[in-house]
Amino acid sequence: MTKTDLVALIYERVGLSRTDAAKAVDSVLEIIKESLHRGERVKISGFGSFVVNQKRARRGRNPQTGEPLIIASRCVLSFKASDILKQRLVVKGSCSQG
Fold first, then answer.
1. Which residue range(s) make up the domain with 41?
2. pLDDT at res. 98
3. Measuring CA to CA, which residue among 66, 39, 67 is closest to residue 53?
4. Count of structural domains within the chain
5. What is the CATH number of the domain that holds 85?
6. Cβ(24)–Cβ(16) under 8 Å?
7. What is the distance between the alpha carbons of residues 1 and 46, in angstroms, rounded to a whole number?
8. Predicted confidence pLDDT, tens digits, the chain (98 residues)
9. In sequence order, what DSSP letters do the residues of 5-74 get, joined into one string?
């Protein structure tokens, strides 16, 4: 599903104009991005939680030369599905890929 698909579904189900539906989707996504940027956890009841975690620096190897190097610390986005979403996926059996 793409952002365009999401806008189209909101247009059909809620009855907003396509322009208003696009603004609503953009606004929600922008609010989520801003919250994550501030280091806040974003929890959507019945769906799941988004959180930014800090990965520490670690040792690694250059795959071409085998030379050891240090991989810098970085931020990673994690998503944890709610139990409600997990149950719904199991019940519907919608784990098919492609």
1. 3-92
2. 46
3. 39
4. 1
5. 4.10.520.10
6. yes
7. 19
8. 999 999 999 999 999 999 999 999 999 999 999 999 999 999 999 999 999 999 999 999 999 999 999 999 999 999 999 999 999 888 766 565 54
9. HHHHHHHHHH---HHHHHHHHHHHHHHHHHHHHTT--EEETTTEEEEEEEEPPEEEE-TTT--EEEEPPE
